[in-house]
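User: I want to check something. If I give you two sequences, will you return the structure for each one separately, not as a complex?

Assistant: Yes, each is folded on its own. Here is the first sequence with its structure:
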Amino acid sequence: MVKCWHWSSRRTLASVMVAIFIVLLVGCSQPSPTPTPTQAPKAAPPKEAAPAPKAATPAAKTEAKQAEPSKAAKQEVKAPVKLKVPYVAVVGTHAVTWIAKEKGLFEKYGLDVELDYIAGGSQVTGAMLSGEVSIAQGDASSTVSAVLAGADLVFLGTVANVLTFSMYATPEIKRVEDLRGKVIGVSRLGSTVDYGARYVLRRFGLEPDKDVAIVQMGGNPEALAAMKSGGAQAGIFGVPTTLKAQKAGMHEIVSFLDLGVPYPMVSVVARKQYVAANQETVRNFLKAYTEGIAVAKKEKDFAKKVIGQYTKTDAEDELEETYDYYVTKIFPRVPYTKVEAVQGVLDEKSVDNPKAKEIKPDSLIDMRILKELDESGFINKLYAN
């Protein structure tokens, strides 16, 4: 009896132990219990996958392309190139730059131009050689003198290839020969006006500075004032100062236009080095300049208004005379600098400077950019309408 219980007890104990082993084995194979909120947040349920994008229709592609900024819009806008451009006299030959300025043509071609009146070409030439001025509507006599001294100046265009001045004198002077022992007032020594005075005196048999004193006055208004006060007996003037001289009792004794003196009267001038390094700026300046000529010829009332603004007159007779003389008779559509005009300056300079005989006029002229504008049809289009 006892034996049977013992066997049964042993068998029961073994079964219990097997059961405990199985429970432990199963427990180790189960995943860890879900962490409590203090341990880690519950994982978010997986999101539903987004549907694949549909192929864009042609219309949608076009709209998207139009919505994109253009390449031009992305490009940085260039600031206008600043230029200080002087003119040497308050006469109608300088009207082209005045008109280009007041019409907004310089701005049209990306330039911010400040116009300055500097009496006398030698002053302007000095400013160019110092680097203060890059492009000028300058004076041929001073330009050539600077070249003879070693400067690298060059003519880029000319609105008048003959001298357009007149010599006016006080009532007692009847002819050029009567100026012996007298005084001629000029703007500045070495300027175009100075050149004109010397040319005329020699042509009529008088020696400048010996037979006739040539005195620097500062400008046309100052020379006329000197004649009124008796400080000078003659002066070299351009329209409209010629009319002012007539009203003051002076009279013309020589017309340079009638003499037909070859001379690059008013020219666009720059240093060769500047032109080589700034072709686009020079091209844009000449675009504005040639369009200024076109505006002058096509818009008479506007041109007269600007001329009056700069010459400080509203006298209709002076404005009409200035417009007719320069714009109608003198200004060409394409302002080429002529070789014979530059040669005329060299011939005059050779009287006092033998080096002038060694220089070829072609070396002082650069018409490449102006010729390009002419042959491309740019200038013709300015007169199309």
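And separately, the second sequence with its own structure:
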Amino acid sequence: MRRVNCRRCRHFFVTWEPARPFGCRFFGFKSAEIPSMAVFQSSGVPCEQYSPRHTPAKKRSDF
């Protein structure tokens, strides 16, 4: 089974709620555990909506 790293997914976000600190924008929920684990526990299937974040390339500064 492939483990999904939500922290690298564009749908993942962190909330300010201590009881539910992690969220998934795709599925629209907040959870006390990492969203991929919540999806697996509720459906029995690994999260298939993982989409990597698009991070801008670091600019090279010439001094």
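Because they were folded independently, the notes below concern the second chain alone. The chain has a mean pLDDT of 88. The chain has one helix and three strands.
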